[in-house]
Write a structure and sequence with these properties.
The chain has 423 residues and is an alpha+beta fold. 32% of the residues lie in helices and 28% in strands. The protein has 9 helices and 24 strands. The protein has helices at residues 9-23, 65-72, 102-112, 147-155, 179-188, 235-245, 267-275, 317-328, 373-422, and strands at 27-30, 33-37, 53-57, 78-85, 91-99, 116-118, 121-122, 124-127, 133-139, 161-166, 171-176, 195-196, 200-207, 223-227, 250-256, 259-264, 281-282, 285-286, 288-291, 295-296, 301-302, 334-342, 349-356, 365-366. It has a 6-stranded antiparallel sheet, with helices on one face. It has a 5-stranded antiparallel sheet with strand order 10-11-9-13-12. The longest helix is centred in the last third of the chain and has 50 residues, at 373-422. It is globular, with a radius of gyration of 27 Å.
Length: 423
């Protein structure tokens, strides 16, 4: 674990400074990652096109750029290397490397995979999911005539916008120059906290469906659903298993009824865990591992509201709460983002959601904090369902108690009446 490592920060700083002097690349740390290059020295023109970035994991926690750069630069010129960093100073065991040419990225996957960065530490390198598009819902909807003004207005909040495209019902598809800038924008555009043109509010931000991403497979998300668990199986054990399968990429684990939702730091970690999760068993049960799908087909963007589950599969807590509220005539549950902050341990952005049932007074409940807004929303639904079950149980107990008291009273009266008549 990173907490057991002892790092000499002064020595690391000297090594990084020496690397800068030797290569001429700048090294800057921001937003929980340390960026080497981006651009490299004497670079002119736009950043490299898609297909030039790779994802590397299984990096020792105390291994840094002075060891990584020589390995990755051995196959081609590096445009940028982004190493994810913890508050403690250790890395998070993975990085992204963008080359100046696509063929260099392919060569890195072929040559550096299983390269031993240290004895016992073979690196793993795969293609990065280079999604540069976000879907942003603004309300009231923006006019198509002010496209340039929208780009400038959003540019006051986030960096790297290349173009925007208008979708239906207030949605904008915003394309960024790099995946990194798109990911940063997704964290910065917190719904409820950003207002454009003094009156237009950002209501929702999701990843857009990238063209040709992941060979057409449904693997763009970061959440895996694990089912067919026994009631005694701990969600923490499930998290440990998938953390091992993904090389330490699990960010959050939440139990939701008879399934566990496992959230990963990135799409690559999730895909790696999925690829390795065939024929898994736990406590004698064969696990059913599937993607937690969040696609909304009518607009080609990812929606943070899970779609209904077809067939005989059990619905998730969000759908269960909606069904209960509809059946009781309470109205549609209203979700809201009630908090966003930096986690003190990991430095990651975490969120808290709440849910309110319109037809039930004082019904607002808050879920647990999570690194993924969808999991935070699911957590709020779980808390609401637990409250409904508890209230129903209390009403049932009270009702039975009243029936028992009334029944005993009737028996007592009848018994005394019989005694009095006999007497």
């Amino acid at each position: 674990m990173s907490s057991t490592l002892s790092l000499d920060q002064e020595d690391i700083a000297r090594r990084l400074l020496s690397l800068q002097d030797t290569t001429g690349y700048d090294i800057v740390q921001k937003h929980g990652q340390r960026i080497y290059g981006g651009p490299p020295p004497e670079w002119s023109g736009p950043p490299p096109d898609k297909g030039t970035e790779v994802y590397c994991y299984r990096i020792p926690r105390d291994c840094f750029e002075d060891e990584l750069v020589p390995v990755f630069s051995s196959v081609g010129r590096i445009y940028e290397l982004r190493l994810m960093i913890e508050f403690s100073g250790t890395n998070r065991s993975y990085c992204y490397v963008r080359y100046t040419k696509q063929e260099d990225a392919r060569e890195a996957i072929r040559k550096i995979t299983n390269h031993y960065i240290r004895p016992g530490y073979p690196l793993a390198v795969t293609r990065s999911v280079d999604n540069r598009k976000l879907c942003i819902k603004a309300w009231p909807p923006l006019d198509k005539e002010i496209e340039e003004d929208v780009v400038n207005e959003l540019g006051n909040v986030v960096e790297g916008i290349d173009r925007i495209k208008y979708q239906t019902r207030g949605w904008l598809e915003v394309e960024f120059s790099t995946h990194r800038l798109a990911a940063l924008a997704r964290r910065q555009l917190v719904p409820g906290n950003v207002v454009l043109f003094e009156s237009v509010e950002i209501k929702q931000v999701d990843w857009a469906d990238p063209e040709g991403g992941c060979d057409g497979q449904e693997s763009q998300g970061k959440i895996i659903s694990v089912r067919n668990l026994t009631s005694s199986t701990s969600h923490l054990r499930v998290g440990d298993m998938f953390n091992s399968l993904s090389g330490g990429q699990v960010n959050d684990v939440v139990r939701s009824g008879n399934m566990v939702l496992v959230t990963f730091y990135n799409q690559e970690g999730a895909k790696l865990a999925m690829d390795r999760s065939r024929d898994l068993e736990m406590d004698g049960n064969r696990l059913e591992v599937t993607w937690w799908s969040q696609k909304k087909l009518d607009r080609g963007c990812y929606n943070s509201q899970p779609r209904s589950v077809p067939g005989n599969q059990p619905a998730g807590p969000v759908e269960q709460l909606l069904a209960v509220c509809a059946g009781q005539g309470w109205g549609t549950p209203q979700y809201s983002l009630t908090g966003a902050r930096q986690d003190q341990v990991t430095g990651q952005q975490v969120y808290q959601c709440s849910v309110m049932v319109p037809g039930v007074p004082h019904s607002q409940v808050r879920g647990d904090w999570s690194g993924d807004r969808e999991v935070a929303r699911v957590s709020a639904a779980i808390r609401a369902m637990q409250g409904i079950v508890k209230a129903s149980s209390e009403l049932y107990t009270a009702h039975n108690s009243e029936l028992y008291t009334a029944h005993n009273s009737e028996l007592y009266t009848a018994h005394n009446s019989e005694l009095y008549t006999a007497h």
